[in-house]
Specification:
Rossmann fold; seven-stranded parallel β-sheet; 38% helix; three-stranded mixed β-sheet; globular; single chain; alpha/beta
Length: 346
């Protein structure tokens, strides 16, 4: 297939693009470059791409594509809470518009990167499946729910939308993120010797490795239409339903000499959920997640040492909110998060 991959210069897109290409698909990226320079280690080889803000996509840009894999978003809860209107403009309105344009352009399949955060206040006693009530507690998660509703309303005999509700990602990517839980705790351990948990450690989180996410998107792209049409799937495995304290314990066991500090300074976290992943196993038998929390912690530890992770990089370059703030302060981004052209006024 000829595939448009939005967000190809992000944390997950950088992992997914070569997986799609290796499977024989022609990949074209679309990215505004907000995080293109957030590289740790050798620079990745990107596919050809459109340097474009998601809000500026037009019908002609989607002509000739068999599928769209839509990852691009302002990603994570703190960022969304800081700038909720921009989060809704990009994550909700631009995403819904992209799907509508894709359908009108004759794109056959549309894969949407949603999140298990849509279950945010579900509680930790029962596994939540795709039919569970959606309880988003942040603008980021709420935007995902709204896009899913709009996306499935577009489904018809020619347009096949699929929503992949990803568990919280972890693992090394050439374009690193340090503001997701396992990546963050390993970084703290490497740089300071302390695995610092700011909550009380009790909330449940489902986790999934970036490479396993890439495998899920490939499986959903290639699956028979009837297996995925108009459906949402939780992406991950029950093995990686863990508490934040359990994640921290795995990091302490991985990083020599590190110690655990559960501070509880941020108070109770309302987001706590354990997720049922049986639906994706039934629909996409090719998807077989391989990565455990412990293996991911070891991978990150080795990569951080090998590529020389620094405190500045950890705190600023690889943390989404800090990176955007720094780029705005440098005049590289306008208030609406659009890149500023050379010579223009932010």
């Amino acid at each position: 297939m000829r595939v448009l991959l939005t967000g190809h210069q992000g944390y997950l897109g950088t992992v997914l693009a070569p997986v799609l290409a290796a499977a024989g698909h022609e990949v074209v990226g679309l990215d505004s470059g907000l995080f293109a320079d957030c590289v740790l280690g050798p620079a990745p080889q990107d596919p050809p791409g459109l340097a474009m803000d998601l809000r500026d996509v037009e019908l002609a840009d989607l002509a000739g594509f068999d599928a769209v894999v839509h990852l691009a978003a302002l990603s994570n809860d703190p960022l969304g809470s800081l700038a909720p209107q921009i989060t809704y403009d990009i994550n909700q309105h631009a995403s819904t518009r992209l799907a509508t344009l894709a359908r009108d352009a004759g794109v056959g399949r549309f894969l949407y990167a949603s999140t298990c955060s849509v279950y945010g206040a579900a509680g930790g006693d029962e596994l939540v499946g795709e039919d569970a009530p959606l309880c988003p507690v942040t603008p980021y998660a709420a935007s995902k729910v709204r896009v899913e509703d709009a996306l499935f309303a577009l489904a018809d005999d020619d347009f096949c939308p699929v929503s992949l509700r990803n568990a919280t990602a972890f693992g090394f990517s050439p374009r690193l993120r340090a503001d997701i839980v396992l990546n963050n705790l390993v970084g703290h351990a490497v740089l300071s010797g302390v695995v610092r948990v700011l909550s009380d450690g009790t909330p449940w989180r489902p986790l999934v490795h970036a490479a396993d996410l890439a495998a899920a998107f490939l499986a959903a792209l290639e699956a028979p239409r009837q297996a995925v049409h108009g459906k949402a799937f939780n992406i991950g495995s029950e093995t990686n339903n863990v508490t934040v304290a359990q994640i921290a314990d795995a990091v302490v066991a991985t990083v020599p000499g590190s110690t655990l500090a559960i501070t509880g300074e941020n108070g109770p976290d309302p987001r706590s959920y354990r997720v049922d992943f049986s639906a994706v196993r039934a629909a996409l038998p090719e998807f077989d997640p391989q990565w455990t929390i412990e293996a991911g912690a070891r991978e990150l530890y080795r990569a951080y040492l090998a590529h020389g992770l620094t405190q500045e990089g950890f705190d600023r370059r690889f943390t989404r909110l800090a990176r955007l703030s720094d780029r705005q302060a440098a005049g590289e981004l306008a208030a609406d998060m659009r890149p500023v052209r050379a010579g223009a006024t932010p």
